[in-house]
Amino acid sequence: MQEPIEPGYMVFVADGEVGVGAVREVRGDSRELVVNIENGGDFTLPAAAIRDVHEGKVILDVEHLPEAVRHALAHPHDAEDPSYAAADPQEGALEG
């Protein structure tokens, strides 16, 4: 059984990657999430868009994401100031 999702959980494209956002809201017994994607804004996602949940992390199932979310996930770190960024801007991003 998947652990319950809570606001504040980090969102990832794949386990072991850099986070790309966070859960802002959980609706309808975890049937729907509002997720803020860095540099992309808020998106409402169905539970089918979640591959796994563990240790406060939500791993997305990219195949079940709308095109607008996929586009946002391709550029989550683009707005970061490179002098402060701890990682390569492409780390954790969805590949083309």
Automatic annotation (TrEMBL):
Residues 73-96 are annotated as: Disordered. This is DUF2171 domain-containing protein. The lineage of its organism: Bacteria, Pseudomonadati, Pseudomonadota, Gammaproteobacteria, Lysobacterales.
